[in-house]
From TrEMBL:
This is UPF0201 protein Metbo_1162. Gene3D superfamilies: 3.30.1440.10. Coiled coil: none annotated. Belongs to the UPF0201 family.
Length: 129
């Protein structure tokens, strides 16, 4: 599964930078971290989403994830947002619009085949259904 993962979060004036970074790292591993003026951005590959994949399974939200991810397909990219506050406690909470109190983790996944990627990250084993 070849992909490039980018996660970007706005750092609000009332937030601590280390908490925003922790919210991201609770859900995603990353290879590179960029701290800019009012934002944090991380990038990585398919290994970056293994925590997310495991949380989708553990929390039994793969069907919801499947719908939200398919909704975010545009060409070879999948875009979606997770609530930053929920991520701070390691919960992947898909948000449909820009309405969470502290903002979102905006995620973009570039891959040759978005449908195959979504099938992989939301895959259910036969005996789990």
């Amino acid at each position: 599964m070849n992909c490039k993962v980018t996660v970007r979060a706005k750092v609000n004036p009332t937030e601590e930078l280390d908490k925003v970074i922790r919210a991201i790292s609770n859900i995603f591993d990353y290879e590179e971290l960029e701290i800019g003026d009012g934002y944090v951005e991380v990038t990585g590959d398919e290994n970056s989403v293994l925590k997310l994949k495991e949380e989708l399974k553990n929390r039994k939200i793969r069907d919801t994830a499947n719908k939200m991810l398919f909704k975010g397909i545009e060409n070879n990219k999948i875009s979606f947002s997770l609530g930053k506050q929920a991520a701070l406690v390691s919960v992947p909470n898909f948000v449909d619009s820009k309405m969470s109190a502290l903002g979102e983790l905006d995620v973009e996944i570039e891959t040759d085949n978005p449908e195959v990627f979504i099938a992989w990250i939301t895959h259910k084993e036969e005996d789990e259904e």
